[in-house]
From TrEMBL:
Entry superkingdom: Bacteria
Residues in HTH tetR-type domain copies: 9-69, 261-321
Record flagged with keyword Coiled coil: no
The UniProt record lists the keyword Nucleus: no
Annotation: DNA-binding region: 32-51, 284-303
Record key words, sorted: DNA-binding, Repressor, Transcription, Transcription regulation
UniProt source species: Saccharopolyspora erythraea (Streptomyces erythraeus)
Name of the protein: HTH tetR-type domain-containing protein
Length: 455
């Protein structure tokens, strides 16, 4: 390869761009410093002058992405600073600028998302620092709309950022969702999560109460909101396996005997331990088998790949969570809505090991479109099961859900966003109080008191 001489600043920029592309495409452990040097047309020695280790390069990539978000969402960058636009226009500009980042710097944004699953404390510190600046930019606009800057409002904004980022990442692979549709979802979600109302409705277009923004825009028919049945999810998983490290072609499924069920469960338990200890990307089938005390043959008689094993683990934990919710709501007729909400949250575990595993697997799935579609379908099927439970509890407390699809999306966003806060500050009771308040706010935003007219 012909080598091109660049000044130090341009060379560093080139290495960061190549690194961002590779970290966006692959797990951290699969990226080799030699490949980055080769793509840049430089020697390893020159590469090491800029970044002594791969970890140092990854930190620099995440730092650049985090800085890009912080700078790219500052109102001064949009020409809508106070005095030049209304608060509503600044709110719309805030969301537009955030979505612009995914259109112009997709690799950086994917790499930043991968960094959220990193065990590197420095990477997490960089991300947290940049995220706080982004939160401050959003809070500045909300203050102009009349909201008080409280810890609870910051928690709501943090959850909204998780929701908006998930939607923007999804759109990179799912162009069925237009930029305008995603912008409206983000704006409506921000208003609902933060309880911001004064004058903000004009910023998001249609304010009719006859149909939700999702229904009115036809988004209920798009991939982002489509809810599939469990049978469809099963068919989809079958059609896309083997995924990842696939084993031998599977024969007809063997009958599920008690012994086989025990083998399968031991493999699932062992895999969770290994995933949590060293990360999904570093785990091999041999390590799972060694931990469980079984051969590779036993593994392949139950799972075709580590991807399939994880999905089985996820489904099992989801079933337990749903059973816990059903039990919690079995008799809530005498409870207040607040008590019912606390009962429900107690049935949804916040598990550090499980969060670390799912965060990394989600980053892995984003690089694998068939696997990403399977995960999206399974998450929607879980929502399809949860929403009737939630709607029933609200009905017993005298409220009716106005838009189940939007409610499901918002509940997932709040859960994902506040889970991180609970895990980072496990001993801070105020964090859990704010988590409960955010869920209550979402339930209020997407439901209304039951009357004779709307029964």
């Amino acid at each position: 390869m012909t080598r091109t001489r660049l000044n130090p600043s341009d060379r560093r920029d080139q290495l960061l761009r190549i690194g961002a592309r590779l970290f966006a495409e692959r797990p951290y452990d699969d990226v080799q410093i030699e490949e980055i040097a080769a793509r840049a047309g430089v020697s390893r020695g020159l590469m090491y002058r800029y970044f002594a280790t791969k970890r140092e390069l990854f930190r620099a990539v995440v730092g650049r992405a985090s800085e890009r978000v912080a700078e790219g969402t500052a109102l001064e960058a949009s020409g809508t600073a106070p005095g030049t636009a209304t608060p509503e226009e600044r709110l719309t500009a805030q969301v537009e600028m955030f979505l612009d980042l995914f259109d112009t710097d997709a690799d950086l944004m994917r790499a930043l998302h991968a960094g959220t699953a990193s065990a590197d404390e420095e990477v997490r510190r960089i991300i947290a620092q940049g995220a706080r600046r982004h939160e401050d930019h959003v809070l500045d606009v909300l203050e102009q709309l009349g909201s008080a800057r409280t810890a609870a409002l910051r928690a709501a904004v943090r959850s909204w950022i998780v929701m908006a980022r998930a939607g923007a990442l999804d759109r990179l692979d799912n162009l069925d969702i237009s930029r305008g549709e995603l912008r409206e979802i983000c704006l409506r979600g921000l208003l609902a999560l933060t309880g911001t109302r004064a004058g903000a409705a004009s910023a998001v277009g249609n304010t009719s109460t006859q149909a939700s923004p999702i229904q009115a825009s036809g988004l209920a028919d798009t991939t982002m909101y489509r809810i599939r049945s469990r049978s469809e999810v099963s068919d989809m998983a079958t059609a896309t396996t083997p995924l990842g490290d696939a084993g031998p072609a599977a024969a007809e499924p063997a009958p599920v005997t008690a012994r086989r069920a025990r083998t399968r469960q031991r493999l699932l338990d062992a895999a969770l331990d290994v995933f949590a200890e060293q990360g999904f990307g570093r785990t091999t089938i041999e390590q799972v088998c060694d931990r469980a005390g079984y051969s590779r043959g036993a593994f392949y008689s139950n799972f075709s790949s580590l991807d399939e094993l994880f999905l089985a683990m996820w489904e099992q934990r989801s079933d337990r969570m749903l059973a816990g919710l059903r039990a919690a709501f079995a008799d809530t007729s005498a409870e207040s809505p607040e008590e019912a909400l606390r009962t429900a949250l107690a049935a949804i575990p916040v598990d550090d090991a499980w969060y670390r595993v799912t965060a990394e697997f989600t980053a892995h799935a984003l690089r694998n479109p068939p696997l990403r579609r399977v995960m999206a379908a399974r998450e929607k099927s879980i929502q399809d099961t949860v929403l009737p439970i939630v709607a029933g509890a609200l009905r017993r407390s005298g409220r009716r859900v106005t838009d189940e699809t939007a409610l499901g999306y918002a509940l997932v966003a709040v859960h994902d966003g506040t889970t991180v806060q609970v895990l980072v500050e496990p001993d801070d009771r105020e964090v859990r109080v704010r988590r409960e308040e955010l869920f209550r706010r979402v339930l209020d935003a997407y439901s209304e008191p039951t009357t004779e007219e709307n029964r």
